[in-house]
């Protein structure tokens, strides 16, 4: 029994510490996405896309310290509210969650936005 458990642990340990590659057999980072580079494939990385109204529905406590650094794309800022964590969401763009902002309540901060403030 001990030998079986040892074999299972030894066999699965490389999996536990593996890097993940998409379109590559040799990932160079924790997550390595390599383009296919053919003329018929659309390349890019799409973050989660939400409206400010959808983010408002999630409330002010869903995102916290464990989500520090999360990135989303707001594709419509006309709905919802600009209160609490959404205070600085004024237009379309990429936003990053800063969990330590505003006395550790957290705020969505503009990473690259199209709003004219």
Write structural notes for this entry.
With 117 residues, this protein is an alpha/beta fold. The protein has 2 domains: 2-33, no CATH class; 49-113, no CATH class. The protein has 3 helices and 6 strands. The strands form 2 sheets. It has a 4-stranded mixed beta sheet with strand order 3-4-5-6. Strands 1-2 form a two-stranded parallel ribbon. Helix 2 (52-57) links the parallel strand 3 (49-51) and strand 4. The longest helix has 15 residues, at 2-16. The radius of gyration is 20 Å and the shape is flat. The termini are far apart. 10% of the residues are buried. The model has no long low-confidence stretch (mean pLDDT 87). Residues 1-18 form the signal peptide. Keywords: Signal.
Low-confidence stretches: none
Main-sheet strand order equals: 3-4-5-6
Characterize the overall form: flat
Number of strands: 6
Rg, Cα atoms, Å: 20 Å
Mean pLDDT value: 87
Q: Major sheet: size, sense and barrel closure? A: 4 strands, mixed
Number of helices: 3
What is the N-to-C order of secondary-structure elements (H for helix, E for strand)? Answer: HEEEHEEHE
Kindly state the percentage of residues in helix. 10-25%
Distance between the termini: 66 Å
Query: By helix and strand content, what is the structural category?
Result: alpha/beta
Any idea how many domains?
2
Strand content: 15-25%
Keywords: Signal
Signal peptide: 1-18
Short description:
The protein has three helices and six strands. With 117 residues, the protein is of the alpha/beta class.
């Amino acid at each position: 029994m001990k030998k079986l458990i040892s074999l299972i642990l030894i066999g699965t340990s490389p999996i536990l510490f593996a890097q993940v590659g998409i379109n590559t057999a040799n990932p160079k980072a924790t997550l390595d996405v390599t383009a296919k580079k053919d003329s018929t494939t659309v390349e890019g990385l799409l973050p989660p896309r939400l409206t400010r109204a959808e983010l408002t529905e999630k409330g002010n406590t869903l995102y916290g310290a464990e989500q520090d650094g999360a990135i989303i794309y707001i594709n419509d800022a006309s709905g919802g509210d600009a209160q609490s964590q959404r205070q600085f969401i004024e237009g379309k763009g990429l936003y990053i969650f800063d969990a330590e902002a505003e006395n550790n309540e957290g705020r969505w901060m503009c990473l690259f936005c199209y709003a004219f403030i």
